[in-house]
Design a protein that fits this description.
Number of domains of chain A: 1
Shape of chain A: elongated
Number of helices of chain B: 11
Shape of chain B: globular
Radius of gyration of chain A: 19 Å
Strand content of chain A: under 5%
Largest interface: A-B, 50 and 60 residues
Structural class of chain A: mainly alpha
Number of strands of chain A: 0
Number of strands of chain B: 0
Oligomer: heterodimer
Number of helices of chain A: 3
Helix content of chain B: over 70%
Distance between the termini of chain A: 53 Å
Order of helices and strands of chain A: HHH
Structural class of chain B: mainly alpha
Largest sheet of chain A: none
Distance between the termini of chain B: 40 Å
Helix content of chain A: 55-70%
Order of helices and strands of chain B: HHHHHHHHHHH
Radius of gyration of chain B: 24 Å
């Protein structure tokens, strides 16, 4: 059970993020929930790449061949963290515009499509 | 659908999703029992093939470079999207508020104390040096363009936080920021396309690899990392500028 904890935690974070998105009453809150949901992928990827006894995949001061954790998943996450921040900025700017146009940040009240 | 019905619908679906997830991971290896062959292969060959000691960046800017190019353009498109949504709207600004009110707001800033100004300057210098260091050493130690760019982009924010809004305006309005943002994005694609002129595949590492461990080693990895650093710096500074301007306009409108 403990050995599979990463997968459980990842699913747990994912589902709570999704729950937040579904039940949210505020668009800003909803954007933050999307960010929470996304962090579940970090937990999952890092868990998959982890190796018992593995160190960081930087060979600046350790010889090649030392047991290291998977650098592939780290590379995937590295780019994503920065990109996610800007995507959040884009989503939040949409929230600001939505508030300007519709006068509300409650997704429940954004039912009518206006041009 | 009422919110109660939706919550119930969600809970049922979530239970289904959790079940599918559990079923999908039933044969997954336990934590720490790493079985993927790619990670093992790449950590064995990357240092010899690319002369980069940071394997994560060797993957990011070389082995998986095409994918990172795509991520770069997601970044670029998001920044463009924010700029587009917050573009100055002439008619609206003329209605309620005018420029003098914005100006007033800026002039209302409290006088900056000497302590704050000196420590801010010190902080900015440290942040710029550290940011450049991180961005330039991506091929050797943990770091690279993404991380260094974010550190560099925080430097103008420190200027703003110390109450020096005018200096902040002057820094972020510089055309160099837009040049960094677009030049970084274009540069990445150009470095990739340059390989085509040497008869190699797109994004092949065509620059001499140099000595492993040197600052100028690893060929295109260092170049692309620096270009990404430029783009991330430009992008984040533009985002901060746009958001803070939006706050100032909203503030000026309320008064």
């Amino acid at each position: 059970m403990l050995n599979y904890l990463t997968y459980i935690v990842a699913a747990w974070i994912f589902l709570w993020g999704l729950y937040g998105i579904v039940t949210s009453k505020n668009l800003v809150h909803q954007v933050v929930c999307a960010a929470v949901l996304q962090t579940s992928t970090y937990v999952l990827l890092l868990g998959i790449g982890f190796k018992v006894g593995g160190t960081a995949p930087i060979f600046a001061d350790i010889p090649v061949g030392t047991s290291v954790v998977d650098p592939l998943v780290q590379a995937l996450m590295l780019t994503d963290i920065v990109v996610e921040a800007t995507v959040m900025a884009l989503l939040l700017s949409m929230v600001v515009k939505s508030n300007e146009v519709a006068g509300t940040v409650d997704p429940e009240e954004l039912r009518v499509l206006t041009g | 659908m009422s919110s109660r019905a939706r919550t119930i619908f969600f809970l049922i679906s979530a239970a289904g999703l959790a079940a599918v997830f559990a079923w999908g991971f039933r044969d997954a290896p336990p934590l720490g029992d790493y079985r993927g062959p790619y990670g093992n292969v790449v950590t064995q060959v990357a240092v010899y093939e690319r002369h980069a000691t940071d394997v994560v960046n060797a993957i990011n800017y070389d082995y998986r470079g095409f994918d990172t190019l795509g991520e770069e353009f997601i970044f670029f498109a998001s920044v463009l999207g924010v700029l587009l949504l917050f573009r100055p709207q002439k008619e609206k600004e003329n209605e309620g508020k005018n420029d003098s009110k914005e100006q007033e707001h800026l002039e209302e800033e409290l006088p900056v104390s000497d302590t704050l100004r000196v420590s801010m300057q010190l902080m900015v210098v440290i942040m710029i040096v550290f940011g450049v260091y991180i961005a330039a050493h991506g091929q050797l130690t943990p770091g690279g363009g993404f991380q260094g760019g974010v550190i560099l982009a925080s430097a103008p924010l420190v200027v703003y936080l110390s109450g020096n809004a005018e200096t902040f305006e002057r820094i972020v309005s510089s055309p160099l920021i837009k040049l960094a943002e677009s030049g970084g994005a274009a540069g990445y694609a150009i470095v990739g396309a340059a390989a085509l002129f040497f008869g190699a595949h797109f994004l092949t590492n065509i620059i001499p690899l140099g000595m492993t461990g040197d600052l100028f080693s690893s060929g295109t990895i260092a170049v692309i990392s620096a270009l990404v650093g430029l783009e991330v710096t430009g992008g984040f500074v533009l985002l901060m500028k746009t958001y803070l301007q939006e706050i100032i306009v909203a503030h000026g409108g309320k008064k």
